[in-house]
Design goal:
Strand content of chain B: under 5%
Number of helices of chain B: 4
Helix content of chain A: 55-70%
Distance between the termini of chain B: 56 Å
Number of strands of chain B: 0
Order of helices and strands of chain B: HHHH
Structural class of chain A: alpha/beta
Radius of gyration of chain B: 19 Å
Oligomer: heterodimer
Number of helices of chain A: 17
Strand content of chain A: 5-15%
């Protein structure tokens, strides 16, 4: 094969791969077409890899083959074993791998060509390494916060935001300097170090409850790093894939910030969760009277209902209760009760997480409803069952301008005839905000482990008539 | 890369970003987690750069970095697509009453 033919073949293959990636994402617009979409994505990736192996710059294959085998082995093992409840952690972890991969490609590019890099390429390589390392450490921090290895509470110091912004600007300055004089290796490695440091410092001040936004943002950074790689090695397919990834991350970040009624900047720089007034709301002690109910009371209410809406939250994932929730729904449906699920955009630790868990538990996806689609139905619903959700059902978001979550769109659960809350204790939720809902006259609090309570409810359904 | 190529690159970037924004905006909230792990797998395309770094005729240090990068990117590509498919297989539509599978 002549070099020219080889080049045309490779370029054609990359073009097809790029188109397949777009079709892959398009397939995800409905559950029916989604698996075909993913197949096209896999096909695109395969074509791109084969085309790359034809590249005449590649002279030895031992590292390539070993790397592909090891990577495929680890990737397969992780994806087969990881429980669905750990999906946010897995995503954070894979962003770390993605960031490291691009960063290393950037460093090796600089290491090989250094002084001889053309100005534009130098800039691209600089951003590639910087964004790659930033994504790497940022994702590890996010993973640590999700896992609870690092405190989920925002860690802040005075002037932190100024330090971060200053460091960002300094990096841009140094990259410009490198474009002018690419031979300055220390400057390049300083950019790499700054990326590593900024990844840690940018995620530290963000609270655990805001991790979905951070993960989305890291998704964006990983995409931009891939784009920069595309510029560095003249590969349009990398620019396309990176841009798809980058725009999806930005879209999510904005969407979730909106779902929490906070500006994007506030999530990034606000260190939400630190401003809890220690004088307010004695946490732990129930200061006001509330209706504590037994499992049997709750079962009676559910059995007497015609329509029930389940509102799942992160608590459901923590106690792995999705399967029991589904058993309960099945038992109710057998009694002729209509059961639907209301899923808030920020329920759980990443967008769509609750949907995946319920799908895993064999819940039909046409029973899962978004905030906007179901919120008007609560007023016509007999009973709401809240499983481990708190802030997304807090009426203070609508009524109390002093509340930290004021303005966040929440479910109108208090409009339904009766509300059953499954909760570990009367402690305030993740954000530390007191929830008036728990003290309403039509609310029944069933305290204890959600999974145990649900098992009790299922048993009560079988006994009851 | 010449200045002209650079602008061509930015054209591609801008157009792909718009396409991405439009296409992804149409994905229902139901599938946001699979979408995120799917885009994650796609961004593993940086594997292409890693392969060149690992297999080219450069210094050992550079090849080793490429080797590690190939491992990391392959984990994302293979793992990302597999887990996305594993999730999507679970999304099923059933009649009322939720017949057992």
């Amino acid at each position: 094969m002549s070099d020219a033919v080889r080049l045309y073949l490779a370029d054609g293959a990359y073009l097809i791969a790029g188109i397949f990636f777009i079709l892959c994402l398009k397939g995800l617009s409905s559950p029916q077409s989604s698996r075909r979409g993913i197949f096209l994505g896999e096909l695109g990736m395969f074509i791109a890899v084969v085309a790359t192996l034809l590249n005449k710059e590649i002279v030895s294959y031992e590292f390539i083959i070993a790397g592909l085998i090891i990577g495929a082995g680890i990737g397969t093992a992780i994806s087969l074993r990881i429980p669905m409840t750990k999906m946010p952690e897995r995503i954070a972890f894979s962003h770390a791998f993605g960031g490291l991969a691009t960063a290393l490609v950037g460093v090796s590019e600089y290491y090989n060509h250094g002084v001889h890099l053309a100005p534009f390429k130098m800039g691209a390589v600089g951003f590639e390494a910087f964004l790659g390392f930033l994504t790497f450490t940022g994702s590890i921090m996010a993973y640590g916060k999700l896992q609870g290895v690092i405190s989920g509470a925002p860690i802040t110091f005075k002037g932190q935001n100024y330090v971060n912004i200053g460091l960002f600007l300094a990096v841009f300055g140094v990259i410009v300097f490198l474009i002018v004089s690419p031979g300055q290796a220390p400057a390049f490695y300083a950019v790499c170090g700054a990326g590593l440091a900024l990844g840690v410092m940018a995620v530290l001040p963000i609270g655990g409850a805001d991790m979905p936004v951070v993960i989305s943002l890291l998704n964006s950074y990983a995409g931009l790093a891939a784009c920069a790689t595309g510029f560095a090695i003249d590969s349009p397919v990398l620019i396309i894939a990176g841009a798809l990834d980058g725009s999806s991350g930005i879209l999510w970040s904005l969407m979730m910030s909106k779902a929490m009624n906070r500006s994007f900047a506030n999530v990034l720089f606000g260190a939400f969760g630190t401003q809890i007034d220690p004088g307010a709301a004695p946490v732990g002690g129930a200061s006001k009277p509330f209706n504590e109910a037994t499992v049997d009371d709750a079962a009676q209410v559910l059995m007497a209902s015609q329509s029930v809406i389940v509102v799942p939250g992160y608590g459901m994932a923590v106690s792995q209760a999705q399967h029991v929730v589904r058993d309960l729904a099945t038992a109710l449906e057998k009694r002729g009760v209509q059961v639907r699920y209301a899923i808030h955009p920020v329920a759980g630790r990443m967008p769509g997480h609750m949907n995946v868990l319920l799908a895993e538990a064999n819940v039909s996806y046409d029973h899962l409803f978004d905030l906007d689609d179901i919120n008007d139905d609560f007023a016509r619903t007999d009973a709401v069952l809240i499983v481990g959700a708190n802030d997304v059902v807090n009426p203070a978001a609508k009524t109390d301008p002093a509340s930290p979550i004021y303005g966040m769109p929440v479910f109108n659960v208090e409009l339904s005839r009766s509300i059953i809350v499954l909760k570990r204790s009367m402690n305030a939720g993740f954000s530390g905000v007191e929830n008036e809902l728990f003290f309403l006259p039509n609310t029944m609090m069933v305290l204890g482990d959600a999974k145990k309570t649900l098992l009790g409810l299922v048993a009560a359904m079988k006994d009851g008539h | 890369m010449s200045g002209h190529d650079l602008f061509l690159g930015f054209y591609i970037f801008a157009l792909a970003s718009f396409v991405g924004y439009q296409v992804i905006g149409k994905v229902p909230a139901l599938l946001h987690t699979p979408l995120m792990s799917g885009t994650n797998a796609i961004s593993g395309i940086s594997l292409v750069g890693s392969l060149v770094a690992a297999g080219s005729n450069h210094a050992m240090a550079s090849k080793l970095m490429g080797f590690v990068a190939v491992i990391c990117a392959t984990i994302n590509v293979v793992g990302g697509f597999m887990i996305t498919d594993r999730m999507l297989r679970m999304f099923k539509k059933r009649g009322p009453g939720g017949d057992d599978k």
